[in-house]
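**Polypeptide and fold**
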Amino acid sequence: MAKKDAQLERTYNVPLRKEYQKAPSWKRTKKAVRALKNFLEKHMKSDDVRLSKPLNEEMWKHGIRNPPHHIKVNVKKDEEGIVRADLFGEKKAEKKPVKKELKKAEPAKEIKSSKKEETKKATPKVEKKE
């Protein structure tokens, strides 16, 4: 027998209109998101379906009352059975490692002390005569 691929990758154009028309107008996009997840569960044979952030934003772009009629998605299933759906044509942004630099506290103290000296210089001293 042939060895199974580590990842299963497909592209779907998912029809949403039939499902969201069954919901009231103020719940349509929520129903469309559920319809997309149900479609992917059925076709990818997995219970764990996760949508990418850009895909979710595309679904909600026109608000809760006006979802898209259909949406094109790239779908990947990994070895653990997790299905990840991305918007068709979406470019993945590479995560850059963030380097944290420690700020030195000494220069900040010097700035504060110099401000105090400036305020002291601005007020002239008045001597009292007895």
